[in-house]
Amino acid sequence: MNVSTMTEADIPKIVEGNAASARGFRAAGIHCGVKREKPDLALVVSEVPASAAGVFTTNKVKAAPVRYTQRAVAGGRAQAVVVNSGNANACTGEPGLADSAEMAKLAAGALGLDVELVLVASTGVIGVPLPMEAIRSGIPRAARALSPDGTSAARAILTTDKFPKTAAVRLEIDGVEVTIGGMAKGAGMIHPNMATTLCFLTTDASVPPAVLRRALARAVADSFNAITVDGDTSTNDTVLLLANGRAGGPPITNGEALHRFTAALTLVAGELARMVVRDGEGATKLVEIAVEGAASELEARQAAMTVANSLLVKTALHGGEPNWGRILAALGRSGVEMREETTDVSFGELEIVRGGLGVTGVWDAAAAALEEKEIFVRIRLGVGNGAAKVWTSDLSEEYVRINGSYTS
Amino acid sequence: MNVSTMTEADIPKIVEGNAASARGFRAAGIHCGVKREKPDLALVVSEVPASAAGVFTTNKVKAAPVRYTQRAVAGGRAQAVVVNSGNANACTGEPGLADSAEMAKLAAGALGLDVELVLVASTGVIGVPLPMEAIRSGIPRAARALSPDGTSAARAILTTDKFPKTAAVRLEIDGVEVTIGGMAKGAGMIHPNMATTLCFLTTDASVPPAVLRRALARAVADSFNAITVDGDTSTNDTVLLLANGRAGGPPITNGEALHRFTAALTLVAGELARMVVRDGEGATKLVEIAVEGAASELEARQAAMTVANSLLVKTALHGGEPNWGRILAALGRSGVEMREETTDVSFGELEIVRGGLGVTGVWDAAAAALEEKEIFVRIRLGVGNGAAKVWTSDLSEEYVRINGSYTS
Fold first, then answer.
1. Chain-wide mean pLDDT for chain B?
2. Catalytic residue, candidates A123, A196, A262, A392
3. Percent of chain B beyond pLDDT 70?
């Protein structure tokens, strides 16, 4: 848990850190037996009750822990999050809801907290009851394992991820040093897992629940809601944020302080979200798609997402194929206001389409741009001032192999 | 051109046949030099002016031939269709429009027709000017090659298709034998081609243009608009229908006659559309997704299309993986009214999800059902009476390999 302090307080930068980096937070990650061998149970706990906010999947099929935690976080207060991986507790009916409630109760008991202050999340197999004997024996052990080291928790929430995802920022707000840290897991889906995007953020800033909720909504819009790996939205997607105020200083409620806090929160969430894309199943490239000149921000996002989810664009990017026609065709069917004649497309600084027509003599340079591990696609629609940025991955044979096979 | 006559006139069945099977139609397919070797220029011509209707891509990026033909068919009359493959004449600006107009004019000259009676379609490379010298030398030759054999035309409209797609029906309407035939090409996209769905239907029925337009819209809704291979909509998608009345008999305008005509037209269009899915790049299975019990027909179609386009569902079907959680998750994010508790899913007759919960003991039988070349997914949402059926393919490594590679 190395958290290097920033040298220039005004420009927050990503530093090493995780969900236990902010003052007054501890975490633990252990193996309890939901999975055969790998860590599968995580706790994140604040030493005092904290403001809390959550953003959840919009899928109408919501897993039991999502339904439980949506209600639990509605009051805006929480002190602990308990997470299991290996089983999503989704499509499990009423017994599944009872299992989520019991998970919260077990954690509350082990930590000596009111059950109302415990939030729950799960990820893993769908349609299979949560193995509660493992959870029952595991939670007290996880509580005893709590420490200021958040790295084991970051490993315990993973399913098919290739690497743990943690990040933090440290910045000064109103003369007080504030830390925002977090951990996430990725969006791969492998049989028999239905994996999920989970993200747990903690901060020692003091932020009232209503303000925290708006800040988190803004940060998620520009991070986890601006990424796509396969266009599917899971039954379990959850982002939670706890703010325990241990940094001291006045509550952050508006003005420059709130602006700085939200920007830093967005930075951490964005870093974690891009890690999720990089770790997408079979992904070999991180692709940033920036749309400018759309009729509105909403239309810019819609256009960018349509391009980001186009199988033909994603396979072309994987193959290093500067097939700009596929980008134009995706824009054309995205439903947003656009005209070929005013549409420009660039890879980084290299313009490949001007006014809807291919720029001649750039094919080789465009192909070379696609050889990079990070690809920047810039689209100017020329019909308004709306702009948005989304991140996606390429689509490789590996993705199909992983997601189609019995045995993986 | 074997057209076997139906034994039971009341139940039209698909027979062999093509765009030249109906009385008074001739066709030709030749090589003119847009492609290196393969046939690339087709003509379909009626001996008399015909009622005409068209359905076109909804993509805002429309190829020149689409823009040209949308205007040309608006009057409801046509006598010939000229089609080239190998070049889409898309993203080619004003010169592209002039090329489409010249193609129509060349065909009109070679056939001795008013240019207003000629429709144009193109498919192939995007963003490259149409090689007009090849078109100019080819059209007169194609006109001289016209014959009652429609099979060479069916080959000349192909791009990356593995097989030509033709079908017909013959039925009695008001005591008159009517033939509806057609040809189509598929929806694969390979560098540097942006391929397209094209379908050309002809009939000797007598149908006024306004009625023909409605019948075609209905038939396309249940055929070409009910299939999806990769979710992308091309710049060139076109379905055209000519009805020359050479079968004799009174005009078909309403009642039982129109009902029978529309059903038979839908049958031919559906057969051709399913051939397009079967021939999808890297497709190994034809998957029918039927949704019942949706709040409306529109919602049923939306739910079915979301499942049909889900990468996770498509890769699971390819891998023979009865991962029903992916189907539920796709339904949940489709935006339609649904509740887990009332949702059932079957593979054919085998129920695998009842009331949102997995049926126990059916995994092996479900996996076996996915081994078939044709898979039937039945979804009952239990919230209303809306129903819809769509067809899709699985998603194989082959799809990614084809669409991602330079050299294919």
1. 90
2. A196
3. 91
Q: Cite the beta strand spans of A230-343 per DSSP E.
A: 238-243, 286-294
Question: Can you give the pLDDT at residue B58?
Answer: 87
> A312-321, B98-107, B282-291, B389-398 — which one is most confidently predicted on average?
B98-107
Q: Per-residue confidence at A230, pLDDT binned at 50, 70, 90? A: low
Helix (H, G, I), strand (E, B) or coil at A372: coil
Taking the C-alpha atoms of residue A131 and residue A129, their distance in angstroms, rounded to an integer, is: 6
- The CA distances from residue A215 to A219, A263, B19, B241, in Å, are 6, 9, 61, 56
What is the distance in angstroms between the CA of the first residue and the CA of the last residue of chain B? 32
- For residues A138 and A106, give the distance between their C-alpha atoms in angstroms, rounded to a whole number: 10
* Contact (Cβ atoms closer than 8 angstroms) between residue B389 and residue B277: no
* pTM > 0.95: yes or no: no
CA distance A24 to chain B (A): 37
User: What percent of chain A stands above pLDDT 90?
Assistant: 77
Chain B positions touching A358 (Cβ under 8 A) are 91, 127
- Taken in order B254, B255, B257, B261, is the CA torsion positive or negative? positive
Q: What is the pLDDT of residues B195-217, one digit of tens each?
A: 578 999 999 999 999 999 999 99
Chain A segment 213-232 residues within 8 A of B by beta carbon are 230-232
Tell whether B115 is within 8 A of chain A (Cβ): no
Whether residues B324 and A234 touch (CB distance < 8 A) is answered with: no
- Tokens matching residue A16: 């090493």
CA distances for A289 relative to A56, A227, B60, angstroms:
24, 10, 20
Q: Are A197 and A50 in contact (CB under 8 A)?
A: no
Give the phi and the psi of residue A291 in degrees, each rounded to 5. Answer: -110, 130
Main-chain dihedrals φ then ψ at residue B143, nearest 5 degrees = -65, -40
A35 — phi, psi (to 5°)?
-95, 170
C-alpha B18/C-alpha B23 separation (Å) is 11
Contact, A169 vs A11, CB < 8 A?
no
pLDDT over 90 (residue A311): no
| Known catalytic residue at B284 | no
